[in-house]
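Quick one - inputs below.
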Amino acid sequence: GQSLEQPSEVTAVEGAIVQINCTYQTSGFYGLSWYQQHDGGAPTFLSYNALDGLEETGRFSSFLSRSDSYGYLLLQELQMKDSASYFCAVFYSGNTPLVFGKGTRLSVIA
Amino acid sequence: GAVVSQHPSWVICKSGTSVKIECRSLDFQATTMFWYRQFPKQSLMLMATSNEGSKATYEQGVEKDKFLINHASLTLSTLTVTSAHPEDSSFYICSATIAGGVAVDTQYFGPGTRLTVL
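Output:
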């Protein structure tokens, strides 16, 4: 089946930069997206990459390398409120449901 | 932006009863809605894909007779958990895609419904 791999936990200091990696299976790959989920809340869309390269949105950036079946989410100037779970998710073709990774729990410490 | 609501936001019920969860797209028409389930500290697992006016497509391992899905209009899909048991306690999340949308950023998530079965 289709699976995504991402680290289960990451801890970083307030103000620092953290990178969360995601690898995926290539068959039928269409695009890679990232979601943020705080405890008890629903996923919130952060970014989407369909082409190679870096997409920047404020403090968050997302990168994709289709040849390496790899992407990452980069969070800069970390704030305590960034503590949450981050999921990479893949569209494997057009208007189909997202397949989610298992999530990375980010803890931002002072 | 597009808004998806869910009702109720949380529900506690006795084992053996049925619970209905509504998912509504408030300011757009959604031809397709997806239902996910998320257990504590785990990822979102797709349960079924719901298309307006047709039968839902269930993922492998999801009992269609236990999780009844109805998508009667372009703005409403319902999930009914029949004869709920404690193992059905979970966070249920729906998402909706805008009619004609094919990009990932046209999939909008509801706030989720936390079901606790005693």
